[in-house]
Amino acid sequence: MRKRTLLKTLLASTVLAGLSAPSFAQDAFDGPTTGPAGAEGKTIVVLAGDLKNGGILGVTSGIEEAVDVIGWDVRVIDGAGSVQGRTAAIGQALALQPDGIVINGFDAVEQQAALEAVVAADIPMVAWHSGPVIGCDAPGGIFANVSTDAMTVSEVAAEWAIKDGGDDVGVVIFTDSTYQIAIDKADRIQETIEAMGGTVLEYVDTPIADTSSRMGPLTTSLLQKYGDSWTHSLAINDLYFDFMGPALAAAGIPGDGSPKAGSAGDGSEAAFQRIRAEQFQAITVAEPLNLQGWQLVDELNRAIQGEACSGYVTSPALVTTEGLEKLGDSNAFDPDVAYREAYTAIWK
User: Fold this and answer.
1) What is the pTM of this model?
2) d(CA 144, CA 312)
3) Which of 100, 198, 250, 337 could form a disulfide bond with 300, CB atoms 3.0-4.6 angstroms apart?
């Protein structure tokens, strides 16, 4: 049986320069409790931006779990981390003529022309992290864009760096201008750091899809450029830190040494493992990925039946080594609230 814990075991509750880390503790599911029963005999397609991304993979797993309960069929198509791959995936989805489509982890603006064909075919769409507008009636014909509040996530990550680094904090921010939401998150990180008296050494725009080849040389170059003044790395998701560790280790930096890494989302399994082992990542501001997968299925069920979007927005949690000590061997932020039971009750 999967191990879970109350959100409150993963929190930071500090208040810094007028910005407070939100209270994520909850005793019950705070999402929808009413809605349409599950539509019968539906087939949906999940268009995954890149299944190597732990956040996208976690959401996909939640969708697959929920679809099994609601009684639908699902097909997952991997965009493999490229614009061309995602365009091709949308074409494959259209050819399958599904009852609904999930845009999982890529910007709707990037694929505007292809998604217009989905709208023209009158296929309902929901999304995870498809742009800066969260919730109902997102741009591009998307019924609901499921996400935590990205600006809150960015502020919490920045606050952690300020608290941890003190007066001498020097931050390098990693983002990807392919995605508008990534730019918005990185901008908010920079604004928060600077408003609280910290220093942003560099704002690095490097593609998420190329992290495996870019992060090693880039890390070495940044170490040579900034030396000990580089105290913290903040990225718009965990994937950047999947490939930073070897370069830091080669420079003689221990796993819990500086620069310390913090992610403004998503809370991947690999990130949890690094944080737990104190190996080149200190925190992540995690989203409840599995829960969000269930939410996507519920929103798509509402869209298919012409019902209103639920408007539910999930809460993130600041995950630290200390918090993970209370999780046993679990490497996922899966809140100990009865969301599975709540959605099952709606659909059945």
Assistant:
1) 0.84
2) 10
3) 100
